[in-house]
Design brief:
By secondary structure, this protein is of the alpha/beta class. The protein is built from 14 helices and twelve strands.
């Protein structure tokens, strides 16, 4: 386990030499083999389309997802934004999104304030899906000048806030058929799409065949230091590349990073099942100990949400700070339902011992006299 050292806190009775960082699956460090890929990667000017390593990553990812083309960008937020701008290329456009989606909650309202794209927000079902009848009620054509025209439906797979739930192929295909009947495109925010693929035992090309575009994050769960790849049809990628320029532009000799992203896809996807098993172990233990859980102890992938049990020794405002200072356990809080939920993400930089330690310390702090 490659974990950061924890300094000794003056108030700590049980100091640890390492932190167990469960805040996100983005906290991982590049491995030595991954860094070696960067050192030997051929590079060129990506803005001019001349970086061979970037071109190889884009082609490899597009082929893997069964799409025509790909575009490498530095962040998942940029990838989602330029996808929206490409699909909503004209003005007076609107998209349908989940009210608890990452695009809605945690991307700065960028589609509206940078792209002029408004949104209709629908409350997700418990499994992260959007109800088809609700989407039909939200649909607006351009035959009435009172309305923005619905151009796009955005899904999130896996769905973070709904507990890392994996959207199944049958549902995505239903949305695709529904959207085609209305002349609307479908974009998948696939920041953790490989987690969904592994959980459902469904190849990503098959899982995403009904989507017009997919954003794939290389730093969530896969261990790359940064980067996302957006895939779709050639004309869509052409428009997305134009949108990328408006959102800050391309990068230059970025093959050093792209090489690590390709390494991540080729080497770190199959091990995601380990993260899922560890998350399930945590969820089950906390549920059995009386902690509140939206998933009732069941998880699909590597994300666990929980609330404090009745008669907890600590308040929700104290938990994260005390876990860090007294036990060296890092997790994030303030989610949903008035901020009562906490989130745990398992990832490749923790091991079974870290999982056992985290469960023991959370239960000990909250419940033991």
């Amino acid at each position: 386990s490659r974990l950061s050292p924890l300094r000794r806190y003056a108030s700590t009775s049980r100091p640890y030499s390492t932190l167990v960082d469960l805040r996100s699956d983005t906290v991982t460090k590049p491995t030595e083999p991954m860094l070696n890929c960067a050192l030997s990667a051929p590079t060129g000017d990506d803005v001019l389309g001349e970086d061979p390593t970037v071109l190889a990553l884009e082609e490899y990812t597009a082929d893997l997802f069964g799409k025509e083309s790909g575009l490498f960008v530095p962040t998942g937020t940029m990838s989602n934004l330029i996808a929206i701008l490409a699909h909503c290329h004209g003005r007076a456009s609107e998209m349908i999104i989940g009210s608890q989606s990452h695009i809605c909650l945690w991307e700065g309202g960028n589609a509206a304030n940078l792209g002029g794209v408004s949104s209709k927000q629908i409350q997700e079902n418990y499994d992260g899906t959007l109800d088809l009848d609700s989407m039909r009620d939200c649909y607006r054509s351009d035959n009435d000048d009172h309305f923005a025209k619905t151009e796009l439906i955005c899904l999130e797979n896996t769905h973070n806030v709904m507990g890392g739930r994996a959207l199944e192929k049958t549902y995505i295909d239903e949305v695709s058929t529904f959207a085609k009947d209305l002349g609307v495109k479908v974009h998948i925010d696939g920041a953790r799409i490989f987690n969904a693929s592994v959980s459902l035992n469904t190849p990503v090309a098959e899982l995403c065949s009904g989507a017009d575009s997919v954003s794939i994050c290389l730093s969530k769960g896969l261990g790359a230091p940064l980067g996302s790849v957006l895939v779709g049809e050639k004309e869509f990628i052409r428009l997305a590349k134009r949108a990328r320029k408006r959102c800050g532009g391309g990068m230059r000799q970025v093959g050093v990073v792209a090489s690590m992203g390709k390494f991540a896809i080729q080497n770190n996807v199959s091990r995601l099942s380990i993260d899922h098993s560890r998350a399930e172990k945590i969820a089950t233990a906390l549920h059995e100990a009386g902690f509140k859980q939206p998933q009732q102890g069941k998880v699909d992938t590597n994300i666990v949400y929980f609330g404090l049990p009745d008669h907890s020794n600590v308040t929700r405002n104290e938990l994260c700070d005390r876990l860090r200072k007294e036990y060296g356990i890092l997790l994030s809080g303030g989610y949903n339902k008035g901020g009562e939920l906490f989130r745990i993400c398992t990832h490749m930089d923790i091991n079974d011992e870290d999982v056992d330690r985290a469960v023991e310390d959370i239960i000990s702090l909250c419940l033991k006299a």
